[in-house]
Design brief:
single chain, 258 residues, alpha/beta, Rossmann fold, 45% helix
């Protein structure tokens, strides 16, 4: 698909979805006037991440002060079923983040209410729900539809085990529409996992909103923080002490709200 065809197909797909018109307007504005937002401060962010990075095990054992058992050993049967579901999916979506970190921050917080942005196959949802269901908690997820892939919505969250789905509420809009809808249901959050709009401006808008809803003692996590300087700048501006975890050649940032 060449660039002109891709743009035309994207525009047509949006025009068929009036519920996504607000996001279409934002995408047009971003592509015309703010294309640099995605990579703003990338070089300094990567250097900052490298200096602070620790492993998943180090984070769980030394920061959370919890015994570390890999997620795949805690839930081997559920993980096998999830991998089979992904293999059978007819569309290509994003891969899994740090299942270990997502699971253990929910355990650490004793989470009853978690909010995530970005779902795709649902790997991060699976990890959060594996903890939440033990306390009859709820995961509220925001996920922008994959509008160029036919039947993609049938596979969003496909790896989530069936027994966990009663604890899951999915909002199929861009974050700027989904999050206000979620906040009508939720007034305080125990754990936040951000993995959606990766632009600098998109992150800074959502970080502020989600941080304000996060309770004291709650945990805030963002994936792919080496892509630009948004997480670094957000922490600096708010005098926060972040933890940076490296896995699979990427970086995730975590802050415990004191």
């Amino acid at each position: 698909m060449n660039k002109i065809t891709e743009i035309s197909s994207t525009l047509l797909a949006y025009l068929k979805r009036p519920d996504l018109y607000p996001e279409l307007r934002r995408k047009i504005w971003k592509n015309l006037f703010n294309r640099s937002s995605a990579l703003r401060g990338k070089t300094e962010a990567e250097q900052w991440c490298r200096q602070l990075a620790i492993t998943e095990r180090e984070f769980v054992e030394n920061v959370l002060k919890m015994d570390f058992v890999p997620f795949e050993k805690l839930f081997p049967v559920e993980l096998g079923t999830a991998l089979h579901a992904q293999q059978n999916a007819k569309v290509k979506m994003g891969g899994a983040g740090s299942l270990n970190v997502i699971y253990y921050i929910n355990e650490f917080a004793g989470s009853h209410t978690s909010v995530e942005t970005g779902v795709a196959y649902g790997w991060s949802s699976f990890a959060a729900l594996a903890s939440l269901e033990r306390r009859n908690g709820m995961l509220y997820s925001s996920d922008m539809p994959y509008i160029l892939q036919n039947h993609s919505e049938d596979f969003v969250g496909c790896v989530i085990p069936n027994q966990y789905r009663i604890h899951w509420s999915l909002y199929r809009f861009a974050d700027k529409e989904s999050l206000p809808k979620i906040f009508e249901k939720v007034h305080s959050i125990d754990v936040v996992h951000y993995d959606s709009d990766k632009t600098y401006d998109g992150r800074m808008w959502a970080y502020k909103l989600l941080w304000e809803k996060l309770r004291r003692g709650g945990v805030f996590m963002s994936d792919d923080i080496g892509d630009n300087a948004a997480f670094k700048d957000f922490c600096n501006h708010n005098n926060l002490s972040p933890h940076v975890i490296e896995f699979d050649g990427k970086y995730a940032g975590v802050v415990i709200k004191n």
